[in-house]
Amino acid sequence: MCHSGIALVIQIGNAAAAAATEAEAAFADLAAAHCSTCAVALQPWSDGSLHRGSGLFLTAAASQGDVVLRVPTSLCLAVDYAAGLRLPPGAWPRLQRGVQKDAALPWDILLALALLDSLSGGGDAFWERYSNAVLPQPLDLTLPLCLPPRLLPQLQHAAIAAGAAAQQERLAGLFPGLGGSMSEDGPTWLQWGFGCVRSRAFRLADEHFAFVPLLDVANHAADPSCDFRLNAGEGCVELVAVKDLQPGQEATISYTGPAGMTNQRLMAQYGFVPGGNLADRLQFAALDGAGAAGIAEAGAAGRGSAGDAAMADDGAQAVLMSLDRMQACMGSDQRMASAMGGRDPFAYAALKSLPFAADEAAAAPLGRQLSLAEHLHAELEAEAAAWPTSLAQDGAVLQGWQEQGLGGGGGGLDARMVAVVEYRLRRKALVATCRQLLLDFMEGPPPGAA
């Protein structure tokens, strides 16, 4: 069912370049008219591989601490749980009907409804132009919750696919009238709005969430050039340089904070995974309460000791593995140093996914360690056995696209498929690395190792 009243020009194929030009022009016009400070411009972005899009780039030199963009809070779509909804003047009909239907709707759904109002001019002139010209086209949203059913299995990871399907079902149940697709093979209206909010909104303070136009297009970097802050006294959100910058350098921010995020969370929330993510982790059923109980039952049945559980339901201490043994099993100090120093990010993330004792005295008896390692390896082996494509095949697909000069954002290739293949390839690389480490651990140190 098409939701009447929403008009969105969808640019595809050769029209992608025209859409990019319009986005850049709209950004410049709106920033000049509404921002007292704007030393950035929206420009095409590429990392030299399959990724193409737009980003914020400095138009003038900036010193550390300089404000390079100042967006009035009066332009923002905000939910402040202490002060309520804060919106520019306008009717906002879908948002208002949503609040009347359920006053307890969460902030992200409220902002998604506001974006849909913006598309059809139900907000104000600024937001009508911004939503239609600058926000992502439907087929450019790579979050799993915005993928069609045919693409979810292509992630080749049941947990993230199931989470996306559940989110889609939840959104469809909230507002069935917004369940029609925006374009062929594209997200529904509400999936698009929610996907934009999920990947682009900001938490400005405790219980204060906002969609900040102009700032929302800033790209992520592990070592960002800028940071954002709410300047309540001046009534604006500011983008501040955290290092000296020259014209043409990109103004990036960190989406994750210093702790980082796993690839699963990054993909679910933002639709991409970075290369060499030291914050990535694997989760094991054998390390949660239910899995631990299962290991204990297996031990009671004669397939291990009854104390083999990673964490027994009766509150027994977790089974912790020996890092010293792992280092000996890796065969060289250099291999461990490369992993723990982050030079081998998959090995680093794999080691951090495993329950090693911080103090060797706390490591469990060796038999229990080996039994746990066997269970963890079996989980990874079962996952790998279900993959319809291999790590090598996925790598060859990406390499082939690269050699053909394809890519998202107008490069002739569906950006969603690029994101999907990159996600599953990097998960497979982490799984393969962790499987090998567990095998090394179970086999023991090589002959002659200390």
Rg, please?
25 Å
Spans with pLDDT under 50 lasting ≥5 residues? 1-14, 293-316
CATH topology of the largest domain: set domain protein methyltransferase, domain 1
Coarse morphology? globular
CATH class of the largest domain: Alpha Beta
CATH H-level name of the largest domain... which superfamily?
A: set domain protein methyltransferase, domain 1
* Strand line-up in the sheet with most strands: 1-4-10-9
Distance between the termini: 69 Å
Order of helices and strands: HEEEEEEHHHHHEEEEHHHHHHHH
Number of strands: 10
Strand content: 5-15%
Estimate the mean pLDDT confidence. Answer: 89
Domain count: the total is: 2
How would you sum up the major sheet? 4 strands, antiparallel
CATH architecture of the largest domain: Alpha-Beta Complex
Total helical segments? 14
Helicity range:
40-55%
Determine the structural class based on helices, strands and strand pairing: alpha+beta
Pfam families: SET (PF00856)
GO molecular function: protein-lysine N-methyltransferase activity
InterPro entries: SET_dom (IPR001214), SET_dom_sf (IPR046341), SETD3_SETD6_MTase (IPR050600)
Domain SET: 36-256
